[in-house]
From TrEMBL:
Protein name as catalogued: tRNA (uracil-O(2)-)-methyltransferase
Localisation per UniProt entry: Cytoplasm
Recorded GO CC terms: cytoplasm
UniProt entry tagged with the keyword DNA repair: no
Function, in words: Adenosyl-L-methionine (AdoMet)-dependent tRNA (uracil-O(2)-)-methyltransferase.
PANTHER family named in the record: TRNA (URACIL-O(2)-)-METHYLTRANSFERASE-RELATED
Stretch list, region Disordered: 49-103, 734-760
Start-end of C3H1-type zinc fingers: 705-735
Gene name as annotated: TRMT44
Domain C3H1-type: 705-735
Enzyme class name: transferase
Length: 760
């Protein structure tokens, strides 16, 4: 046995030992958080078990939680994980069992929070591992420990185990499958199974890798066994990583990293997680689909559509949006594949993407065999590149009886903005068999922006609960999942089935109508949900979208009256379901300071830079290079301090723009850096060091814009530019200017008839 690493943990908040088990739960259920080469892990089965009993120590007591208690031997002190002694007489033993039960509950709480009472989803063709089979497997291993592996038994039991029957502590035994990321460039690793043994009272968790023998039986692989241990000494906590037989450790760099990684990287993360008082408000990622299938499908789609990054004509970040839509498409494809298996059908599901934005998700799903189309209020340039097999329609949708999709299996709302809360309603009224998938981003009610009602929740969590409430009211079983996408808003809601039979459609539809109108009238009490405290205020005007997907806008000027009786009777309702909803204008109002006059922007930039540089007057320069040693980087000022120095007319003009002064300064990226509400002069010497760490797409865009604009510092800064001309990305004078490649690229994008097609 060898210690790979040991870390002292400061616990001012008193979170240990419970925090340690929460950290272990992350490594057990979501190892990809620490090891980026893993796709995830699936918990196959779990059970409670007794500590293995060596033959040399006497007869082995019966295992299991229902074991009858015999006479307690005399007291025998034993060190616990908190560093004290735990007696084994009757009162002390009862206290020890209570402590063990409390610590066990603390250990299991984070594991069971996501899906109480159920192991992780298998879904890869193997099926869930039966708990009875885990019983047989563990009993077999226990006998092998007792009979032929005394060293491993000692490693498993730890220093706190005695030789008396009362030390037969209850263990938590988990069988898990660790799943590596699949890649066409790396075919080495395959999913591996492990037995994970948690000894809560002793503060240890041991990982026993499994392998199959020639007859297909599972046995413990003796080479890669390790243990994570929590200990307490002299009022200080320690977390250690121990390796059994380090000389037999085999590292493949993926499933089994080097011992130094366990003792440094993993240990540091466990120590930090143990004292973080954070509990996730959301479920684990990919809890509704097979992680194995998702990983394989995602890598295939990523390889298939990676060329989209190179031809992306939109102003949005190509890497973010291409790979995000690839991930969403992979998720839907696996979700729909498993749904077909459950329903025992072969026909691929049809879909409509409402507020489809750039249309890439529609393009991928269509190319993968699912008939469908996308609708958005504004056409995108990239639509012309997909080809005729991708159906994209330009048009606005106002929720009413004329905008239903009775022949469609699924409605998709991928960052659908104002349509997000309406999608469960449209799906419910389209047909009894219509389902929905929404990925909420911006917070909208049925009309206007969503108004918060619960200060104890984050705005994001509260909005997700609102959309779930809408789905529940519409008669759906609403499930929540967390996607693996490069976005802060990655929780999706899925409505796959109904809570009522088709014969109750009229009754449930009356309930829907009553709920929708109650958001703008009298509160309605529904089973299982708390009524809204008050009707939200109506927001008017043009609202932007943080992720580039633009759907529909909502402007409201009056509150409608409820008409539940009309829909309950099956009558067609003329006009929108909630008067006051208006689609977003086709031409979007831009209020991000980009349309301000150039001379006004230049004036503000010069004035703010003058403040940061200590009042030095900024004038055009004639010299070409500043001194690197004496270059004045200026001071930093808060946005409030900068605003106090600007005249009233300038501030009034900026306030009419979204973000005001801060947006203008952020847009002047070449000159300023705005961090945590403070403004700095940007030092491009530091930017040069960070440029190598940027993604490939950003480095390519940076190269395309090289020397296409004049250097502000060369022209205005008292000390000139901090970089020499050959290193500065901007032109030191008109002679260095070159044409913008972005402008040339736009000129090369022709109309639909002659545009290149993006094939799958």
């Amino acid at each position: 046995m060898a210690e790979a690493g040991r870390a002292a943990v400061s616990d001012p908040g008193g979170l240990l030992p419970g925090g340690f088990w929460a950290a272990v739960a992350v490594w057990l259920e979501r190892p990809q958080v620490a090891n980026k080469r893993l796709c995830g892990a699936r918990l196959e089965a779990r059970r409670s078990a007794a500590l293995p009993w060596a033959d040399a120590r006497g007869p082995r007591p019966s295992a299991g939680p229902e074991q009858e208690e015999g006479p307690e031997p005399g007291p025998r002190p034993r060190a616990g994980p908190a560093g004290g002694t735990v007696g084994s007489g009757r009162p002390e033993a009862r206290g020890r069992r209570q402590l063990e039960q409390a610590q066990k509950e603390a250990a299991l709480a984070p594991l069971l929070a996501g899906n109480p009472g159920k192991p992780g989803k298998a879904g890869d063709g193997q099926g869930d591992f039966p708990a009875a089979d885990l019983d047989l497997l563990w009993d077999h291993f226990s006998r092998s420990f007792a009979g032929g592996s005394p060293e491993l038994l000692a490693f498993l039991t730890g220093p706190g185990a005695g030789s008396q029957p009362e030390t037969q502590r209850e263990l938590d035994v988990v069988l898990r499958t660790v799943i590596p990321k699949t890649s066409p460039h790396c075919l080495l690793a395959a999913p591996r199974r492990e037995i994970v043994v948690q000894d809560v009272l002793n503060g240890t968790v041991t990982f026993l890798p499994l392998e199959e023998d020639e007859e297909g039986n599972l046995k413990i692989k003796m080479g890669n066994i390790y243990q994570i241990q929590l200990s307490h000494s002299q009022e200080e906590w320690f977390i250690s990583v121990l390796i059994f037989c380090p000389e037999r450790w085999h590292s493949d760099g993926i499933l089994y990293p080097k011992p130094t990684w366990l003792g440094e990287e993993l240990l540091a993360k466990l120590a930090r997680w143990s004292v973080e008082n954070k509990r996730s408000e959301f479920k684990s990622t990919l809890s509704l689909v097979s992680i194995v299938k998702y990983s394989k499908t995602y890598q295939e789609l990523k390889e298939k559509y990676k060329e989209m990054v190179k031809v992306w004509p939109e102003v949005t970040d190509p890497e973010k949006f291409v790979y995000e839509d690839v991930a969403i498409a992979a998720y839907l494809l696996i979700l729909w594949e498993e749904e077909r298996a459950e329903r025992r059908v072969t026909a691929k599901q049809s879909f409509v993407d409402l507020g489809c934005g750039n249309g890439l998700l529609v393009h991928i799903l269509s190319n993968e065999g699912h008939p469908g189309r996308g609708i958005d209020v504004r056409r995108r340039k990239i639509w012309d590149m997909y080809g005729s097999q991708t159906r994209l329609e330009e048009g606005a949708i106002t929720p009413n009886d004329k905008t239903l999709f009775p022949d469609v299996d699924w409605l998709i709302g991928n960052h659908s903005d104002e349509l997000t809360p309406w999608i469960p309603v449209i799906a419910a009224r389209s047909s009894y068999g219509c389902r929905f998938f929404v990925l909420p981003c911006c917070f909208f009610d049925f009309i206007g922006k969503y108004r918060r009602r619960q200060s104890k929740k984050t705005q994001y969590r509260e909005y997700l609960d609102f959309v779930k409430e809408v789905g529940f009211t519409c008669g759906f079983h609403v499930e929540e999942d967390c996607l693996r996408i490069p976005s802060t808003k990655r929780v999706c809601l899925v409505g796959k089935s109904r809570t009522y039979p088709p014969t109750e459609e009229a009754l449930i539809d009356a309930q829907r109508t009553q709920y929708i109108t109650s958001r703008w009238g009298c509160p309605v009490h529904l089973p299982g949900w708390k009524p809204s405290a008050s009707p939200p205020r109506v927001a008017a005007g043009c609202v932007g979208h943080c992720d580039g997907h633009r759907a529909l806008d909502a402007r409201a000027e009056h509150v409608p009256e409820a008409r539940p009786a009309q829909r309950a009777a099956g009558a067609q309702v003329e006009g929108p379901w909630l008067p006051g909803f208006h689609p977003r204008e086709k031409i979007e109002c831009v209020r991000n300071c980009a349309t301000l006059p150039r001379d006004f922007i230049d004036q503000v930039v010069l004035q703010v830079a003058n403040l940061l540089l200590g009042g030095k007057q900024l004038n055009p320069r004639s010299s070409q290079n500043g001194s690197l040693k004496t270059w004045n980087g200026g001071e930093s000022l808060s946005l409030a301090e900068v605003a106090s120095e600007l005249d009233k007319e300038t501030l009034r003009r900026l306030k009419r723009e979204c973000g005001g002064l801060q947006t203008l300064l952020r847009n002047s990226h070449q000159v300023f850096e705005v961090l945590n509400g403070r403004v700095h002069i940007r030092d491009w010497r530091e930017e040069k060091l960070q440029k190598k760490k940027q993604p490939e797409a950003k480095r390519r865009l940076f190269a395309e814009s090289f020397k296409t604009r004049l250097c502000w510092f060369f022209t205005h800064h008292p000390d000139g530019c901090a970089l020499p001309s050959d290193c500065c990305p901007f032109a030191h004078g008109p002679g260095e200017l070159r044409p913008s490649q972005a402008t040339e690229k736009k000129k090369r994008i022709p109309g639909a008839a002659s545009s290149p097609r993006v094939e799958a």
